[in-house]
Amino acid sequence: MRTRPSKQAGIAIITAVAIAALVAAIAGAMAFRHSLWLRQVANQLDMTQARVVARSAVDFSLLTLLDDAKQNLYDGETDSWRIPISNLPIEQGMADGKIYDVQGRFNLNNLLETDPAKLAIYENAFKTLLANAGGSPDLLNALADWLDEGSNVRNPGGAEDNEYMAMNPPRRAANGPLFDVEELRQVRGFSDELVEKLMPNVSALPYPPSGPASFVNVNFVSAEVLNALVPQISLSQAEALVAQAKKKPFQNIADFYAALGSQQLTQQLSTSNIFSIKSDYFLTDVEARFGRVKVAYRAMLTRDNSSSARLIWLRRR
């Protein structure tokens, strides 16, 4: 004769099933968390390795520039350091790198020049670059106030601490050289759109208190910057000189002056001494990939001579 299971037995079975399901859920959650932890550890290791590779790529850029200085007395588009490195295999990762000259651009910190004749050249050049980018020439005074150590506001368009503290967010004028072109966005009147338009033609190279201002490398200068610095020549003439330098870099500054075709202009530029065929400052973009991680950096480098090169700054891209 069959008997029905007791009510207690049914509850026991249900409880056992529930406990088994709970244990399975907990075990699954623990396994997932453990897997996630292992992946996080792996990603952290990959990140560390990628950063080391990227930093090594920056060091390699310094060595490349030093090697070039031992072989060449000038810098131009045909130099070996202009060749980018792409998909270079490094153990389980890959690395990319490219070096750019920045001394063919207009150095905004040259507006700190103390020689009146040179300062006039730089100020007029920057006004031209502003106009080409759709900016007001009054912005020259805004940048000059940001750079200089004084507290007197230049008019029209200047601004010092009182004006900046009234802005949102409030800030103070730097009263010193720009560290990076990106800092230009903090200067009153310089919109993001304007800065983006200026970016290809300007730089923020160190300006030591004792000077001198940085030279402009004629082998890398753009037609816009050359025309701004030498308004005596037309934009089309500047474009022709730039094309000539790209095809065959000027190996001495006398060749560049001769290409201008004007003895009077050559005399003026020789006196102002603002051009060169050498570069001391460079940007390098490096990217490293390791596992699932990718890091990208931009660095400014300086090369003092054939035996000395160093990193000025490094930031994430």
UniProtKB/TrEMBL annotation:
Coiled-coil region list: none
SUPFAM superfamilies the UniProt entry points to: GspK insert domain-like, Pili subunits
Limits of the T2SS protein K first SAM-like domain: 104-206
Key word Nucleotidyltransferase present: no
Annotated Gene3D superfamilies: EpsJ-like (1.10.40.60), GSPII I/J protein-like (3.30.1300.30)
Residue ranges constituting the T2SS protein K second SAM-like domain according to the UniProt record: 216-268
Cellular component terms per the entry's GO annotation: plasma membrane
Keywords: Cell inner membrane, Cell membrane, Membrane, Protein transport, Transmembrane, Transmembrane helix, Transport
Domain of life the protein comes from: Bacteria
UniProt-listed InterPro entries: GspK, GspK_central_sf, Pilin-like, T2SSK_SAM-like_1st, T2SSK_SAM-like_2nd
GO terms, biological process: protein secretion
Pfam families per the UniProt record, alphabetical: T2SSK (PF03934), T2SSK_1st (PF21687)
Record keyword Coiled coil present: no
Compartment(s) of residence: Cell inner membrane
Entry's family note: Belongs to the GSP K family.
Name by which UniProt lists this protein: Type II secretion system protein K
